[in-house]
Amino acid sequence: MSLENAVANDGISEGGLHKAPFNFPGRLGTGRFLWLVVLFALLGPGLGFFVFAAGRIAGTKAESDLRDRALAARPLAADTLKGDVEKQRLIPRVLARDGAVQEMLRSPGTGGEAALDEKLRAIARDAASSVIYVINSEGTTVAASNAGEPTSFVGRDYRFRHYFVEAMASGMATQYALGTVSKRPGLFLSSRIDGPEGPLGVVVVKVELDRVESSWRESGFVVFTSDERGVVLSTSVPQWRFGTLSPLSKKEAKIARDHLQLPGAAFEPVPLSHRGGNLVTASTADKAAGFVTVSQDLGKVVPGWRLSLLIPADAEISAAMMTARATALLALVLVAFAVSVIVRRRRAIRQRQDALAHMNAELEHRVNLRTAELRRSNEALAAQIAERENAEAKVRRLCEELSQANRLSILGQIAAGVAHEINQPVNAIRTYAENASRLLQGDRPRETAGNLKSIIAITGRIGAITETLRSFSRRATGSVGPISAEEAIDGALSLLSGRIRECGVTIERQRTDPSPTVMASFVRLEQILVNLLQNSLDALKGLPEPRIEIALAKNKETVTISVRDNGAGLAPEIRKSLFMPFTTSKEKGLGLGLLISEEIARELGGSLRLDTSHERGTSFTIELRRAE
């Protein structure tokens, strides 16, 4: 008789215990069944607590993971705002030192207002500013980038604005408020204009943060800033603007209305409540949901402002808790199942082994499923990290744009000359090719070979020209090392050779053998030289016997490169502010070339200066460190 038949016939196991067939509690003995009921009654609360605790721990872990994600996203949200504000903050500072602005305020009514309006309009357009305007010491706007428009600020009195009063008192000011004309909120950045006799007025730029708020919305997070009283200012949820994070007292509300200049503001609390820890409940678009929140002060960029970032949490925390509880419950079920199998199948060794094998296979399958889920989660996280690194790299690339734009502008100016340089060799190549074709037909291989050698030589000349252009247009790496000063001068003259011949300018050059070696970047030094030579060519246009002298001098520690022309020279008023932004004597110049060149020379550890010892013409000197 088999073991299974023996169990079925007498129900007695090898250990002498009564054993019923598997998973049929109705066939258990009454005492055994009651014992199981009592056991489940005793263990039930503990098992329930275990399942609840597992969900709670998983929820806390999910909340911590969400907080880490929020902390990782917070700097990017803050940098988006800081970058926009810092870029715009430079505009009033630079314009406050602009000679044309100061002269117009010192001598109003002399006709300079229209030119200043156009200048402000061009700067506002290039910098993407909402509006730029100049206020005199009496609080009246005298020039604006929106002059002539229905919403023009010219002639309006802004003595009541805090950014005017504070800037006149302390030099600079920042204020977030509604525009009195546009009725649109924005950040006003102001800087005082000082003259020898005292303050002349204030330059103001208004920054509407629509682009920043749009970027926040696109991130999928809720982002907003608040002032020291908890009033919400810029935000990705427009209906929260000018709400408060907590109720304000009458005194605080009065101060807030005065500073924001919102006389009728009610300052209703935003639908945001804390649930404990980093969790909050917030309503966006009439829908309440849970979020994990992090915040930080914006520091000196916008004093008194605090940025908060909310990342949706309900779905992820609930999913984590449900998964953990299901896993815990499944584990309990599996343990109970295993115990049941061991207790009720002690006699049936083969059946027990089959059951254990089945359980192991099921467990392995579930582990594989969970491992696949974790792998997909890791891949998604890696993709997010890569995307964030790409965004940071993009921000770093923006820092190189100004110098690269200047080089490309220079390339655009000399393109015609370079085209002429290449056009002549191309015509020559065509002539030699046609001659070679005829010579081949006439069975004259020696003469054909001569023509082909000429074509090769001409293509080498074209290659040299295009290589010079390509090297100049390539982005500079910023690395400084020993380079030949003579080779940098050769490169600059090669770039401008077409225009030099077109203008009929004589280049007088004192070569030094061997060429002195300086510590610099080849492309950036070449950029300075091209800027100086371009200015000289512009100054010599239409003059008889134009001439440019290039001289090198070296001493123990430095090497100087001088570029001098025999033009009419610079007017005294231009000399005083030559290296200030937007100072130019050209009709279509922006006044940034010498400023960029001086900055490049400083970054290379040297300097660029105007020589005032010559009675005629204009002379600039580049001084660089001599290489060991």
UniProtKB/TrEMBL annotation:
Q: Where in the cell is it found?
A: Cell membrane
**Taxonomic superkingdom:** Bacteria
Asked whether the UniProt record includes Membrane among its keywords, one would answer: yes
Please provide the record's keywords in A-Z order.
Answer: ATP-binding, Cell membrane, Coiled coil, Kinase, Membrane, Nucleotide-binding, Phosphoprotein, Transferase, Transmembrane, Transmembrane helix, Two-component regulatory system
User: Catalyses which reaction?
Assistant: ATP + protein L-histidine = ADP + protein N-phospho-L-histidine
Topology of this chain in the membrane: Multi-pass membrane protein
Q: Name one Pfam family in it.
A: HATPase_c
Q: Which InterPro entries match?
A: HATPase_C_sf (IPR036890), HATPase_dom (IPR003594), His_kinase_dom (IPR005467), HisK_dim/P_dom (IPR003661), HisK_dim/P_sf (IPR036097), Sensor-like_sf (IPR029151), Sig_transdc_His_kin-like_C (IPR004358), Sig_transdc_His_kinase_DctB (IPR017055)
For the Histidine kinase domain, which residue ranges apply? 417-628
Q: Which molecular-function annotations from GO does this UniProt entry contain?
A: kinase activity
Coiled coil location: 374-408
Q: What is its EC number?
A: 2.7.13.3
* Gene3D superfamilies in the record: 1.10.287.130, 6.10.250.3020, Histidine kinase-like ATPase, C-terminal domain, PAS domain
Query: What residue intervals traverse the membrane?
Result: 33-54, 326-343
Leading EC class: transferase
Query: What protein does this entry describe?
Result: histidine kinase
* Protein source organism: Mesorhizobium australafricanum
